[in-house]
Amino acid sequence: MTTFNTVKKMLYVSAVLSSSAFLSMQVAADQTLTADLGAYPGSSLSAPTGKVSVSFDKETLTVKFDMNGIAPSSKGGIHIHTGTSCDDASKVGGHYWSATLGDDAWKTTTWESDSNGSAKGELMVKTGYNYAQNLSHALVIHNAEGSRIACGVLTASTY
Ligand SMILES: [Cu+2]
After folding, report:
1. Which residue, among 4, 59, 29, 16, has the nearest Cα to 80 in the 3D structure?
2. What distance in angstroms lies between residue 95's CA and the mean position of ligand 1's atoms?
3. Ligand 1 mean position to 104 CA, how many Å?
4. Same domain flag for 37 and 23
């Protein structure tokens, strides 16, 4: 009888363990990448501070941005680029999207700021590239003139 109870306990413990393993898998499957913005390499233009997160539904991206210190009442581009570094301007590259989709997926993706120089919002874009393919890519913020003003590498989110 004792043995039977011990087995029952062990089964219970393993059920608890596997459900927590399942939960942590679900967290991992909540695929979000985050970029902390820094200065664009080699640029003397003032860079906004802030964060951009990108979550994925397969190859459709939801890009959320929260920036400060950007030109007030302005608007500019926000894109993921082909490069995987923000250390060297020659490695940032151009827009990162699958040409099989046709026209540049990043053509109309923009941030817009309020009169205090804060820009917060979200947009959706289908690029043909999923979470794993976007990992470590450079996220670039452009100003109203199209110049690159900030850059951040997309890393796996820890929260
Ligand atoms: Cu860009």
Report:
1. 59
2. 6
3. 11
4. no
- For residue 96, how far is its CA from the centre of ligand 1 (angstroms)? 9
- 11 — pLDDT class (breaks 50, 70, 90): very low
Minimal CA–CA distance to 55: which of 30, 36, 72, 35?
30
- Backbone dihedral angles phi then psi of residue 140, each to the nearest 5 degrees: -120, 135
In which domain, by residue range, is 129 found?
Answer: 31-156
Q: Per residue in 95-149, pLDDT tens?
A: 999 999 999 999 999 999 999 999 999 999 999 999 999 999 999 999 999 999 9
The rounded Å distance from CA 94 to ligand 1 centre is 6
Q: Are residues 38 and 113 in the same domain?
A: yes
Length of the chain: 159
Model pTM score: 0.81
Distance in Å, CA 150 to ligand 1 centroid: 10
Q: How far is the CA of 159 from the centre of ligand 1 (A)?
A: 26
Q: How many domains are there within the chain?
A: 2
